[in-house]
Design a protein that fits this description.
4-stranded antiparallel beta sheet, two-stranded antiparallel ribbon
């Protein structure tokens, strides 16, 4: 007994299957078979001669080519059924090769909105990174000040008015020196006494704020070609350059002798509140890359080595000092000098 082959039932059509063509006429069934032997008439009542087929011509195919590809007179397997040529595109239809003007404008608008949204965040991230670098610099300065006090018997950096400031590495040629009668010049020229404990070649770049442009080889020269810059970004508090009595209530010094009596070094044990007295602070806040406002905090290094970013409005109001008649400044003119508090 022969096994029945799979068949597909359909009237008046030609179909293609993996096993070959199947032709259906009125109620005739042909098995799906790829060889001539036994290809037709495997079922009782089915003629071995395939009947003429009624074939619907697909749209867009040439009649002759289609008939050649659908030779129904042979039981050979139909392998390929492809159009003789490509179908023509409908009139007025062309392949798109670029954006339309509206699509381009919409894309540009979306990009512009995204950039406008992201720019403030990017500026904020850059300012945050600069603030973190600034605080790191202040911590390093605190370490250098501690090394200085240990090397000089507990005395904070001090400079006599008649002495010269060494404003370049002393072991390099072309060094520069500076002299001034200003008793508070040490606030920016404090690096001049750090050549031994903190060599400029290794440390000076960290004494400049992120955002300050400087020559990598000689950052201490700044914008000067012949003279000296020496203007670091972090100010040394004037409270450590005179006796605490200079910021106590009383009359201003009236002569050189009284002034010299106030201008004396300060020792570490004289600081009344090390965690609340500013030792150094950020002067320029260059990492903001704009003019600072009252809402921008500044970095402050305390005498105990701790650092933080604080608003000036929260600092202790300054008082007039008795040594030099100039407008009082926060962190410089602290009431009672090193015995007082800059924060509470």
């Amino acid at each position: 007994m022969k096994h029945a082959l799979p068949v597909t039932l359909q009237r008046n059509a030609t179909t293609v299957s993996p096993n070959g063509p199947v032709v259906f006429g009125s109620d005739r069934v042909a098995p799906l078979r790829g060889s001539e032997e036994g290809a037709w008439g495997c079922f009782p009542g089915v003629s071995r001669t395939p009947p003429p087929a009624t074939v619907d011509q697909p749209f867009g195919l040439k009649t002759k080519a289609f008939q050649e590809r659908t030779n129904l007179g042979s039981p050979q397997r139909l392998v390929d059924l492809q159009p003789a040529e490509e179908l023509p595109l409908p009139l007025g239809h062309h392949p798109r090769l670029a954006f339309t003007l509206i699509e381009l404008l919409v894309t540009i608008g979306v990009i512009a909105v995204l950039v406008a949204i992201s720019l403030p965040a990017l500026r904020g991230a850059r300012a945050s990174a600069g603030s973190a670098a600034m605080l790191s610099n202040l911590r390093g300065i605190g370490v250098s000040f501690e090394a200085y006090t240990q090397a000089y018997d507990g005395t904070y950096p001090f400079h006599n008015r008649e002495d010269w400031y060494q404003m370049s590495p002393p072991d390099e040629g072309g060094g520069a020196i500076l002299r001034t009668e200003d008793p508070w010049a040490m606030q920016v020229y404090w690096p001049s006494v750090f050549h031994k404990v903190a060599p400029w070649r290794e440390h000076y770049r960290t004494w400049l704020n992120p955002g300050r442009e400087a020559n990598e080889e000689t950052p201490w020269l700044g914008d000067f070609t012949q003279g000296v810059s020496g203007l670091v970004s972090y100010a040394y508090s004037c409270s450590f350059m005179a006796r605490p009595e200079a910021w106590a209530s009383g009359a201003a010094a009236s002569g050189d002798d009284e002034i010299e009596a106030f201008l004396k070094p300060v020792r570490t044990h004289e600081v009344g509140h090390p965690s609340q007295k500013a030792l150094c602070f950020d002067m320029d806040r260059a990492y903001l890359r704009r003019s600072p406002t009252v809402n921008d905090p500044r970095g402050v290094l305390m005498a105990d080595g701790s650092v933080s970013a604080r608003l000036d409005a929260n600092a202790t109001p300054p008082v007039q000092n008795r040594v030099y008649d100039r407008p009082p400044e926060r962190y410089h003119d602290t009431p009672l000098g090193v015995r007082g508090r800059d924060i509470r």
